[in-house]
Amino acid sequence: MVEFAPWSVPWERRLQTLSVLQWVFSFLALAQTCVIVFIGLLFTRFWFLSVLYATWWYLDREKPWQGGRRVEFLRRSVVWRYMKDYFPVSLVKTAELDPSRNYLAGFHPHGVLAAGIFVNLCTEATGFSKLFPGIRPHLMMLNLWFRFPFFRDYLMTGGLVTSDKECAAHILNRKGGGNLLGIIVGGAQEALNARPGAYKLLLRNRKGFAKLALMHGVPLVPVFSFGENELFDQVENSPGSWLRWTQNQLQKVMGISLPLFHGRGIFQYSFGLLPYRRPIATVVGKPIEVQKTPQPSQEEVDKLHQHYIDELCNLFEAHKLKYNVPEDQHLEFC
Fold first, then answer.
1. Contact 182, 285 (CB under 8 A)
2. What pTM value is reported for the model?
3. Given a cut of 80, is residue 228 above it in pLDDT?
4. At the N or C end, where does the chain have fewer CB atoms within 10 A?
């Protein structure tokens, strides 16, 4: 039976739902919509708009690989405050970050759509700049999404940048410090494990971020978002099943994963693509000091990687009871 939302729902909550709806749309369909608009304009009297944009696009083509283009007033939009209150999302600080240094932060877990990570790093809804004054956050995203017209500019306004070594080097080597580069270590593939009660991270063989930290001599910051995997249910796709095999093959070809997820709707709570209203607490751990090693050996990478895993586990264990994680629940790595 479908459970409909009551008519008496306050306007505040309706605005929260609307803000999340536009965000879900932006990540599921906005890129495709932008392509349709770009091509469609060419066949109208407004064709010159697409031509002008194409010229701008060509001249600006390297920007996503050079740190992007943040727009502060958009990061501080009231839309994101409504989105933050929908769940709600909170940002928890456990240690200071020195604004004279640059940092590389590993975020876990990916979740289905990385809602908590987006709100905390790509907007000011949870007050990142107040908690960590002098630190400019950036978040890596698949290069594919920066190849869509208009959509690329939308992504950069929030501090999203491409996920490659060139971009990482540009940000982590900035003089004067004050930059934090976030990497969702498990990537799109980890989204296939995202479901309520799951704490399995794709981390065991993901060591590129540790090598980056060594090459540039920047501290590594472990970050864990409690509640991220609680936002959606997902069709059963256990390892070895035909669905997981199909999803893995598509991920190899397309570079993005396709989790079959579902949550609630706009006017009812029984089905839909909106996330459930469940709290997310993103806990930022203590930085791990790293000695600069331009050409690190595999042994050095492995040592730092294991140290990072240990610190991430310590962070999870120290805070899990505060966020209703069962005492006998521990992180799993694959």
1. no
2. 0.94
3. yes
4. N
CA separation (Å) from 284 to 68, 138, 169, 267? Answer: 23, 15, 22, 35
Domain 11-333 in this protein, CATH class? alpha beta
Look at the block and give the residue holding tokens 């283009």. Answer: 69
Rounded distance between C-alpha atoms, residue 302 and residue 211, angstroms = 9
Q: How far apart are CA 296 and CA 302, in angstroms?
A: 10
| 92-106 per-residue burial string, b: 16 or more CB within 10 A, e: under 16 | beeeebebebbbbbb
CA–CA separation, 250 and 162 (whole Å): 21
Closest CA to 189 of 239, 134, 227: 239
Report the C-alpha gap between 78 and 170 in whole angstroms.
31
Per the listing, tokens 């199909």 go with 246
The backbone torsions φ and ψ at residue 280, rounded to the nearest 5 degrees and listed phi first, read: -125, 130
pLDDT tens, position by position, 28-51: 999 999 999 999 999 999 999 999
Structure tokens at 171: 């940000």
CA-to-CA separations, 267 to 5, 17, 234, in angstroms, rounded = 5, 9, 21
Reported as a pLDDT band with limits 50, 70 and 90, residue 329 is very high
10 Å Cβ neighbour count for 333?
A: 15
Q: Where are the beta strands (DSSP E) in the chain?
A: 89-93, 103-108, 136-141, 160-162, 179-184, 200-201, 220-226, 233-234, 261-262, 280-284, 332-333
Instruction: Identify the band that residue 240 occupies on the pLDDT scale cut at 50, 70 and 90.
Output: confident
Q: Where are the domains of the chain?
A: 11-333
Are the beta carbons of 184 and 110 closer than 8 angstroms? yes
Q: Distance (Å, rounded) from C-alpha 187 to C-alpha 144?
A: 13
DSSP characters over 147-158: GSTTHHHHHHHT
3-state SS record for 235-263: CCCCCCCHHHHHHHHHHHHHCCCCCCEEC
